[in-house]
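Feature request, filed as a ticket because there's no other form

It would be nice if the structure record came with a short human-readable summary line next to the tokens. Right now we just get the raw output. Example of a typical job, pasted below so the devs can see what we mean:
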Amino acid sequence: MKIILDTNFLVSSIKFKIDIFSELKGNELFVLDNVIKELEKICEGKGKDSISAKLALKLLKTKKIEILKDKKKHTDDSLIYYGKKGYIIATQDIKLKKKLKKKRVKFIYLRQKKYVFGG
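Raw output as currently delivered:
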């Protein structure tokens, strides 16, 4: 399966100490270029999110996750676009999950702060 990792999915997985790379092993993982920009912006701040975003960026480089170009102006719209093309979206964003459900796009999320779950 082709899975696109969203910003909050990456940050949350690090906060909750979930190794998403072993959980999603055997799948092709991708990230949008805007997600990289969002993570870099979070890194400029302070606190746990900043630390998690820095680690997420480091992991994306280490694991050599392929970066896809955004196809729309907003990240959520790009995720929906790719979802309609057969990609599965990995997100924790409640509003985005509702949009994906409405558009019948498959998604996965973290459940009970320890599992990757499909929606």
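Something like this underneath would help us a lot:
The domain at 2-118 is CATH 3.40.50.1010 (Rossmann fold).
The chain has one domain: 2-118.
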